[in-house]
Amino acid sequence: MNMKTASILLGTLLSATLAIPAFAHDGWSQTNSPVIGAGEVAYVDMMLGNHSNEHRSYRIAGQWSTDSSKVYVMNPAGKKIDITDTRFYTGEAATETEPALNNYFVSSFSSSQPGAYIVSVEGDSIFKGADAASRTLRSAKSFVAVMDIPTMKRASLLTGFQRQVSPDRAELVPLFNPAAAQADTSAEVQLLLKGKPLADTEVSLIRRSNSEAVTVKTDAKGIAKFKLGGADYYLLRAKPATNEKREGEYDTVSYEATMTFIVQNGTYELPGTPSEAKPQVFLNGKAQPDDSFSFANGTLMADAAWAEEAFGNKSKIAASAVSLRDAASEAGAVLEYLPAVGANRAAVYLYLTK
């Protein structure tokens, strides 16, 4: 076979590959580390593939379309921020004779505020065949715990990872802490479709190092339960479809929900005992005066003057001191508690949503 013939054949194969409908692929995102220090950069890889092992593997076979996808991060206060403009391509673009190599995009973000961050890559594309058209809505989630002290133990009590971030499509919501998942433990996720639990639907858990896959069906509440293996990357995927249609645009809708997380051994602990029993309180990342807080019957109390200044007119305070958790709840603030680690005392982080 001469070089000209080979080039023609390869070009034909490339054309055929590009003609494969987009919904035949699966898209996912994965973070470079589940826990990072405050102010450091978190990187998010955006992958597309999963053709082998009945679409239950980490095989890369394509790339996210930059024309029909966006990248977001939800911060600890519950604000969804567009970080699409940080996206860059890591590979070699396809040519007339060679396919694309190292074929994926990367986005990034950094924050000085510790807490739970949810990355969401969202795609919306339509494939039109000869007789019908299908719309694909993707939701690909991954997670980062930004920590003042970047350890699993410090991140273990964060609850913000359970927020819903993509209510217009299918979404996997972890009912465990995906930044502090430990080997050989159990994990539950809830599958939602437009905010409502989706029952009797297959969800697969795939291990990165060997592509071992386990598939279970969701219960009446949309919950799927898994047993985690050893330390590794893990990918969860679900692909419900509906007969939704829009005349002249599409005849069916294929929903795709994925999420990744990293399982660690989680056995290392910093030595020492906390320097003080009272937690350090932070408001929007800024340390607050210790003398504004005290314990009363095991409850962390805030001085009324501090609470009124911190929460403004949102907080209705009659006593000289008020439960910090109650005052935060009345003001609509998000509260996260971080356990003590070694000689470092516990911390309470408050985030005002506006």
Which SSEs are present, and which pair or pack?
Elements: H1 3-18, E1 26-31, E2 35-37, E3 41-49, H2 52-55, E4 69-74, E5 80-82, E6 88-89, E7 105-110, E8 115-128, E9 133-147, H3 152-155, E10 170-174, E11 181-182, E12 186-193, E13 196-197, E14 202-207, E15 213-217, E16 223-227, E17 232-238, E18 241-242, E19 252-264, E20 280-283, E21 286-287, E22 293-296, E23 299-303, H4 304-311, E24 321-323, H5 324-330, E25 334-338, E26 347-351
Parallel strand pairs: 2-9, 9-19, 11-19, 20-26
Antiparallel strand pairs: 1-3, 3-7, 4-5, 4-8, 6-7, 8-9, 10-12, 12-13, 12-16, 14-15, 14-17, 17-19, 18-19, 20-21, 22-23, 23-24, 25-26
Q: Can you put this structure into words, describing what you see?
A:
This protein is mainly beta and 354 residues long. 11% of the residues lie in helices and 42% in strands. It has 5 helices and 26 strands. It has helices spanning 3-18, 52-55, 152-155, 304-311, 324-330; strands at residues 26-31, 35-37, 41-49, 69-74, 80-82, 88-89, 105-110, 115-128, 133-147, 170-174, 181-182, 186-193, 196-197, 202-207, 213-217, 223-227, 232-238, 241-242, 252-264, 280-283, 286-287, 293-296, 299-303, 321-323, 334-338, 347-351. Strands 2, 4, 5, 8, 9, 11, 14, 15, 17, 18 and 19 form an 11-stranded mixed β-sheet that branches. The longest helix is centred in the N-terminal third of the chain and has 16 residues, at 3-18. The radius of gyration is 23 Å and the shape is elongated. Residues 1-23 have low confidence and may be disordered.
